[in-house]
Amino acid sequence: MSKEVVVVTGASGFVAQHLIRELQLTAGDWVKEIRLIDRLPFNKFLEYPDLIPTKFFLADCADTSALELILAGCGTVFHLAAKRLQLTLYADDNEYWHDNLTGRIAAGRESSVFMCTKNYLATEALVDQMIASCVPRIIFVGDALSNIPVGDHIGLSEGIMLDAPTNGSYILGAYGESKFRAELYVRNATGQKMHNGATLSSIMLRPTILYGEGESTVVPGALKFADFFGSLPLIGGGESGKYQMVR
Q1: pTM value?
Q2: 192-222 residue pLDDT tens
Q3: Which terminus of the chain has fewer Cβ atoms in its 10 Å neighbourhood, N or C?
């Protein structure tokens, strides 16, 4: 089997670093090079042998000129770059839209929230350049809670949460909407034919809250909360009070 080049976006994040470790340990029979991209410097914090050559690019996923270089000759992209949900009162909605989806104002929206976002601009630019560079595969990491609307919910499952909320509201606000619209952009591009005759294939992952070695938001935040208040709140409500997606 011929080997290919893979790209990992958001390479400095803890999820990406766990992925890189797994690739290094298990993918030597099909991966010949791993290209890493992030706006932050890459500091390896997990122990694993560097069995596959890696190249790190300090760049923004919305930078099309950088993407053209990085994606050249690539076979698969693991798209993990995103603006994570900020568990504070001071989250910047504009950052969600820049990092998660697009820099253009979305149709029917006049708010500056739809300009410059990490969850949309980065995804839109990446997918467009993948098609231009004839990169055939993308694994997109979304969020299982991204498109849940504001309201009461019982019996949630991934199978019934495929589209945008009919009431236009997102329980996770700009973060949720930007992540969902980024996923939707990839879904809509799937199957598009490229100039070499190949088509874009995708795998869409929708995890719930991610945590693990290297994670710096959820678990540390919960520990700080518990240390300050002496405990963590218990959300009640019986069967209707379960706040975890049915897997």
Answers
A1: 0.82
A2: 999 999 999 999 998 888 888 888 777 887 8
A3: N
